[in-house]
Design a protein that fits this description.
Strand content: 35-45%
Shape: globular
Helix content: under 10%
Structural class: mainly beta
Number of helices: 4
Number of strands: 31
Largest sheet: 6 strands, mixed
Distance between the termini: 30 Å
Radius of gyration: 22 Å
Length: 418
């Protein structure tokens, strides 16, 4: 939610400090247990929680509410927007974001037009505002939709535009200082907080045949303040360039997407990071102070030959003139793959980790493991295959999907608990 690499000496120092803080805060936090340094399960416990200098270390082996006791979506959506109609207000090329602002209001940000469209609780179009351009309320390239205390805001093109929950323009403001953009994460707004990234390490293209690895710092500032606080240092998946038989160079990306995933959300706001090399979550304040480390045991899978072949083919299909064999040459198969693939924090502070589908059979759904705010694993929640979670409330899930013609639409499902 963009792949970088190659850690210089300064980056290594920051990385070591970050790992020591989050994984081995005190000697006892990493002592004993499995060969990888993590605590071993005893007496079949679902989880254990230790306090390490005020930081909770949560070791998780299994869910506390498996099967029918876990959360689940209602069997059918209560609202669908963008299906079965040719009216322009309901048609999308791609969807940047969608939020349920109230039981009777849903806002959807259309990527191609930068329009913010409002719909009622039944999915009927109410009003369209915003749009692509430089005028009041317009954004040339909208890439962020989020809430603030008075309504909803759009970010993009170095500006922030705010609307009321009924679509009335409140403010149109530009950054008055240069943003230190860098690959790895998008600029994210949370109220008046702004989260952004700065690359660390080498710039430019890697030499042919070399896999580049690079990190980025996640930073936080307040709107209209040039002071930047560092949240942490995070890794980005490797990439490289391959020279084909035609003499042209083609980009090659890691098919296993081995980068750290970072999310911002909850109330109070927290920052969560999912490690790329193991199933481990670190929760921090918006100032970068570590609150909790959750270590999910048995969270890695040794992929079979068919699964690996599917990874390489999938990446080859996304690239230009790069065969699966070339992708495999650059990125040999790992011994195991951490099952966590994506990360999102809902409005109540629960964390949703999207799972890689590593089986060889299509299930027709995607799976998320949901962790409660204290770090315990609640259980699994399944959603329709190919869904992108847009907004998760106390009793609903708003998601974006595509139909058989790859046309996006939005659905609202009730979230049933227990």
């Amino acid at each position: 939610m963009d792949h970088l690499k190659a850690i210089n000496q300064e980056a290594r120092r920051y990385l070591e400090e970050f790992l020591v803080l989050t994984a081995c805060l005190l000697p006892g936090a990493c002592a004993g247990g499995d060969a990888d340094g993590r605590a071993a399960s005893t007496d079949g416990a679902a989880f254990t929680i230790e306090d390490s200098a005020g930081i909770a270390i949560v070791d998780v082996w299994e869910a506390i509410a498996p099967g029918g006791d876990a959360w689940r979506l209602a069997p059918e959506p209560s609202v669908a927007i963008g299906l079965g109609t040719e009216e322009p207000e309901y048609l999308f090329t791609w969807i940047v974001g969608a939020l349920r602002l109230a039981p009777d209001t849903i806002a959807i940000l259309a990527g191609a037009s930068s329009e913010l469209r409002f719909f009622d609780g039944r999915g009927n179009h109410l009003v369209t505002t915003g749009g692509r351009g430089e005028g009041p309320g317009e954004v040339e390239f909208a890439d962020e939709l989020s809430r603030f205390a008075g309504g909803v805001q759009i970010g993009g093109s170095e500006k922030r535009v705010r609307f009321s929950s009924s679509g009335e323009l409140i403010s149109d403001e530009r950054f008055d200082w240069a943003l230190p953009y860098g690959s790895g994460c998008d600029v994210t707004f949370n109220g008046d907080d702004v989260f952004l990234c700065k690359s660390v390490g080498e710039t430019g293209l890697p030499p042919p045949g070399v896999v580049r690895t690079r990190d980025y710092r996640m930073l936080r500032t307040r709107w209209r303040q040039a002071h930047l606080d560092t949240i942490g240092l995070f890794a980005v998946a490797g990439d490289g360039y391959h020279r084909g038989s035609d003499g042209l160079y083609n980009h090659v990306f890691d098919p296993f997407e081995r980068d750290d995933r970072v999310a911002v959300g909850g109330s109070p706001t927290v920052v969560a990071a999912l490690r790329h090399d193991r199933y481990e979550l670190t929760f921090m304040t918006t100032a970068g102070d570590t609150l909790r480390v959750v270590r999910r045991h048995d969270g890695a899978v040794a992929p079979g030959a068919e699964v690996l072949a599917a990874f390489y083919q999938r990446m080859s299909d996304m690239l230009l003139n790069v065969s699966p064999a070339v992708v495999e040459e650059y990125f040999p198969a790992p011994d195991s793959i951490p099952r966590g693939r994506s990360l999102q924090i809902d409005r109540s502070g629960n964390t949703w980790v999207g799972m890689w589908q590593l089986g060889e059979a299509e299930t027709g759904h995607d799976t998320y493991e949901v962790f409660l705010a204290d770090g315990r694993l609640l259980g699994e929640v399944t959603v329709p295959a190919g869904s992108e979670l847009m907004d998760i409330g106390e009793d609903y899930v708003l998601l974006a999907r595509t139909d058989e013609m790859d046309v996006p639409f939005v659905e609202l499902y009730g979230l049933l608990k227990g």
